[in-house]
Amino acid sequence: MTRELALTQPFDLELSLTMGQAFRWRPLGDGRFSGVLGENLIHIRQIEGGVEYRVGGPDGERDGSDSDDGLLRRYFREDDDVTAIYNDLSRDPVVARLVAQYPGMRVLRQEPWECLVAYTCSRRNTIARIAHNIEAIASLSQRTVKLGDDVRCVFPTAAQIVRAGEGALKDLRLGLNRPGNVFKAANQVCIGALNLDALAEVKVPCNEAIRTLEDCPGIGPKIANCVAMMSLDKLDAFPVDIWILRALERWQYQNRGCQMPRNTMSPNDHRRIASWAQLYFGKYAGCAGQYLFHGIKPNK
After folding, report:
1. For residue 152, what pLDDT is reported?
2. From 54, 116, 155, 219, which residue has the greatest number of CB atoms within 10 Å?
3. What integer pLDDT is reported at residue 300 of this predicted model?
């Protein structure tokens, strides 16, 4: 059964799903996308004034409900005051132009554990390869959800990955530089050394959450900032990669106080640039970074 969900703020479904922040959305044609949110398989497309969607579970398609509406509203951050965010970002002329050029681009609120694994897989990887790896890791849950002929796997919990063992991850042939880091992160979650839900609490400052994430093996500043921004509600986190560096250089942010790295970017370079961005762009620095990333990256 198709269900409609009204969205009252600027929203571009395709841009938000395909710009490289989430990796489990597949185009189905006719503007529709397939993605797994929690234990739900969602088929969704944009319509006038909102989106329409169908939802499937372990036994196939089921009727949508108010709780499914809530799931999507939370995922698309419908609780944000987008107008206030746009106004705040538009203090910077470059970002103001990009906001006008890409209206409706939204930061997604992803599930923290899945987001952590996805960005652990992102190191020196393409979006297509990250998506392939995440689907492979999802198979370890051995739990499927269905919508017609579309069958997808629910993402495994940290405990399920630990039970499967590090060998099971290696058997997937993910092609990661350090495949053991996913298993190490799962173990940190299981023993309580990394509590992602606690880090998402409003009382936890962004930089404290980032430092905690960096204490986990294999998580450097970029991954920590990505996870903080995209799943822990820390919109002032500012991930820095080669595309952000190119954007900062192209639009001459070094003239606004950003000290660019001299050679290869070190973790300290990342922390310094992120700190500058938080001061310069303010409490929505991460959103500014998303616009800079999309404005500079080719083949979007």
Report:
1. 98
2. 116
3. 46
Residue count of the chain: 300
Helix (H) or strand (E) holding 47: strand 40-47
Q: What is the DSSP letter of 156?
A: P
CATH classification (class only), 112-231: mainly alpha
In the prediction, which pLDDT does 299 show? 58
User: For 129-162, how does the pLDDT look when each residue is reduced to its tens digit (9 = 90+)?
Assistant: 899 999 999 999 999 999 999 999 999 999 999 9
- Name beta bridge partners: 42: 35, 55
- Identify the helix (H) or strand (E) that includes residue 46: strand 40-47
Task: Note the pLDDT of residue 179.
Answer: 65
DSSP 258: -
**How far is Cα 249 from Cα 222, in angstroms, rounded to an integer?**
18
173 CB-near residues (< 8 Å, 6+ apart): none
257 contacts 280 by C-beta, under 8 angstroms = yes
Domains 3-81 and 112-231 in one fold: no
Q: What is the dihedral of CA 132, 223, 16, 285, to 10 degrees?
A: -170
Q: What is the pLDDT of residue 248?
A: 97
Domain ranges of the chain: 3-81, 82-105+235-300, 112-231
Weakly modelled stretches of the chain, pLDDT under 50: 300
pLDDT of residue 191: 96
Of 225, 4, 19, 227, whose CA–CA distance to 104 is shortest?
Answer: 19
Pick the CATH number of 3-81 from 3.10.20.30, 3.30.310.40, 1.10.287.130, 1.10.760.10: 3.30.310.40
Q: What is the pTM of this model?
A: 0.94
How many angstroms separate the Cα of 66 from the Cα of each of 4, 42, 70, 281?
A: 11, 14, 6, 36
* Distance of alpha carbon 144 from alpha carbon 142, whole angstroms: 7
